[in-house]
User: What shape does this take?
Amino acid sequence: MPANRFNGFKDYGIGIGLRIPHYGHIFEKKPVVDWFEIISENYMINGGRPLATLDRILDRYRVVQHGVSMYFGSAEPLNREHLRRLKALVKHTRTPWLSDHLCWGSVDGTYSHDLLPMPYTFEAAKLTARKVREARDYLEVPIAVENVSSYAEFHMSEMTEWEFLNEVVERADCGILLDVNNIYVSSRNHNFDPYEYLNTIPAERVAQIHIAGHSKFQKYILDTHDHPVIDPVWKMYDHAIRRIGPTATLLEWDDRIPSFDEVHAEALKAEKYIQAPVAAAL
Amino acid sequence: MTLLQLQRRMAHAVMQPLTSADRIAPKTDAGFIKPNDRLRSVERLEIYSRSYWFRVLDSLYDDFPGLRSVLGQRAFHRLSRAYLAECPSRSFTLRNLGSRLEDWLQRNPQYSGGRHALALDMVRLEWAHIEAFDSAAEKVLGPEDLLELGPSFRAGLQPYIRLLSLRYPVDDLRIQVNRASDERGAASNVALKHKHRNLLRRVSRSKPQPIFLAVHRLAFTVYYRRIAPEEYRLLNALRKGQTIGRAIRRAFENSSVSTDEQRSMLETWFAAWAELGWLCPAAKSKRKRLT
Assistant: This one.
């Protein structure tokens, strides 16, 4: 896997999200998993069972932190209490990189607990990049921002989503967590070519890739993480890997979670695509 | 329009209460959202609004199963919508969503379905349960520390312990609710409905019976331990940083318990607290409370 400065120069392979329904299986069977992604906020607490469980995982597995509430795109400043707790967790897990979303979700101190879409403006890109840099400097760990799936676009946008992503990561000099499924979902909701998006991604900045399933409704697609990955998304993943090179990849499955073995098997389907460029080069 | 202005407009639109049919209010300001060939601006905004409300309602539903039993599902749903409309999340974690529910319910008794005191007690217990589950634990006072215990010694109380003075025995009720929930799936729907009806009947007949409770945890599991009024006062005094001597005097103020009985009670309590690991160094626990 390509190691770069945005993923702490780590060659991680295929991981899965650490979820409560799988704890029993993991502790009993001790399956071989290259790495687990944890949701940082679940462990930004002072004590109790969640932290004890995390310690048991850290004893045996590599862990990467993924956040859902840093809200780099919110107009308000970063939450200092959030950062303080996050830094304590970063030190504890020794995560080689840390990711969160390119979105907003709080305003005037009120939280939506959602990944709300950004208006693609230069003002927003500048502010978002500044907050990413501030967080990275404080946390002392490489940061990768993830493109979100979206269901709305703003009249005030001045560029495409992929242009906005590039603007932010260049200004912040940070990594990208490329969520291939999110590109697919947004491309269907907003009528754009997902391959045009993929082809503009600066390959050297991609720290990690996300894949997931979603749900189709009559007039839009919702990013629900409750299904296997569909073929068009695997096809996009194949394209991304050929462009970027084999990259640390994680399958997200957050709702109606099946057995550990089923989730792991779905994630390991990525092997085929990761091996393809390597085989071609030999 | 600046970024901040846009985010205020969108947050207001997304977080405003849904209609009774779980739809976004038809006259919502959605002019800042582009329509597409399938959805109007307001329909695109509605995806976010419904998602927001379902998420926060689900979170409160999971955190307060006892209150649901006290009020019934419909009244609980009405309460949840009203509470969240007035007290949206002010924390980066949904764990804290119910932190203001007790204060809010005190000011809004009309949402208690005629069982205000019982509902308030259940909210206190369920919030204490959340706090006891994941609050900090300090180093337990060891046997060598306990040998030094004397009237001028200060001992702290583990930060995860919550002390409650309640008018109803809601601990029993909450345990029954948990059992009923655990049995779900194992029983048929008919049997389950019958049990749930019985549980609601017992709730509606709940009589006031003042209790003192320590909500604590052992091996990462939360437990409710009934304690004597004097024990409650003593633990509260220790938590406030008083010396053991002053805390004991405070505990037995105006008490009719004889000196011999007091000695016996103290021996029993300190032995139990040592076994449960409730005591910790005072200075550390005090510093923790201040951060």
User: Anything to note?
Assistant: Residues 149 and 182 of chain A are 4 Å apart (CA to CA).
